[in-house]
TrEMBL record:
<dbReference type="InterPro" id="IPR036390">
    <property type="entry name" value="WH_DNA-bd_sf"/>
</dbReference>
<feature type="domain" description="HTH marR-type">
    <location>
        <begin position="12"/>
        <end position="148"/>
    </location>
</feature>
<dbReference type="InterPro" id="IPR039422">
    <property type="entry name" value="MarR/SlyA-like"/>
</dbReference>
<dbReference type="Pfam" id="PF12802">
    <property type="entry name" value="MarR_2"/>
</dbReference>
<dbReference type="InterPro" id="IPR000835">
    <property type="entry name" value="HTH_MarR-typ"/>
</dbReference>
<dbReference type="InterPro" id="IPR036388">
    <property type="entry name" value="WH-like_DNA-bd_sf"/>
</dbReference>
<protein>
    <submittedName>
        <fullName>MarR family transcriptional regulator</fullName>
    </submittedName>
</protein>
Length: 155
């Protein structure tokens, strides 16, 4: 380890590992629940939820990839699979021949609307029911601060 790298103290290491494990377990359980009950993967849900929240249900590929923190190739392959299932369509951008939009379809809207209550139930059962309102506020403050810093430092 380089001398300039500050090693994690025992408590920092423990908390970081617990946080990572929580994220992995929670993501895995939510994903399995969603897939079993709605036939949407966690990635499908993320794309559809994002598109359902924007005007006209459409975003540029690059904008969607940035919002989801996905690489260009992952976005391209996943959107192609979702388009094949009728959940989204790809539209060329008339103003920019190199650009394209991802647009949610009526079938995609129906899928996210059906999956959303299942997702909320799972989020409550796996996470929200096990934290106090004060803990939730603290976690929200911490999350917002760390996200803002990462967004500020984004390439």
């Amino acid at each position: 380890m380089e001398e300039s790298v500050r090693p994690l103290a025992a408590e920092e290491r423990r908390v970081w590992r617990d946080f990572v494990r929580l994220h992995e377990k929670l993501s895995g359980r939510l994903s399995r629940t969603l897939q079993a009950e709605s036939s949407l993967s966690a990635a499908d849900f993320a794309v559809l939820a994002d598109l359902a929240d924007v005007p006209e249900g459409r975003r540029r590929y690059q904008e969607l990839a940035r919002a989801l923190e996905w690489e260009k190739s992952r976005m391209s392959h996943h959107i192609a699979r979702m388009a094949g299932r009728g959940l989204v369509v790809r539209e060329e951008c008339l103003e920019d021949a190199r650009g394209a939009f991802v647009v949610i379809t009526e079938q995609g809207r129906a899928a996210i609307e059906a999956a959303a209550p299942l997702h909320v139930e799972a989020v409550r059962a796996l996470f929200l029911d096990h934290v106090t309102p004060s803990e939730l506020r603290t976690l929200g403050e911490i999350s917002a601060r760390v996200i803002a810093k990462m967004d500020e430092d984004a390439p």
